[in-house]
Amino acid sequence: MKDIKLDPKSESTYECFNCGTVVRATAPDSCPNCGAEMRNRRTPIE
């Protein structure tokens, strides 16, 4: 399995499931534009 190594203190790129907004952050709670859930772009969605 090729999971990413998670370091909660380092920034990563996150993408909004709803509107596609992309942000660099440590761990966003929700999208700054629409409030939807964010996912780490380095994590596969398979």
TrEMBL record:
Species this chain originates from: Haloarchaeobius amylolyticus
Name the record gives this protein: Rubrerythrin-like domain-containing protein
Xref: NCBIfam families: rubre_like_arch
Domain named DUF7129: residues: 9-41
Stretches that traverse the bilayer: none
Gene3D superfamilies noted in UniProt: 2.20.28.10
Phylogenetic classification of the source organism: Archaea, Methanobacteriati, Methanobacteriota, Stenosarchaea group, Halobacteria
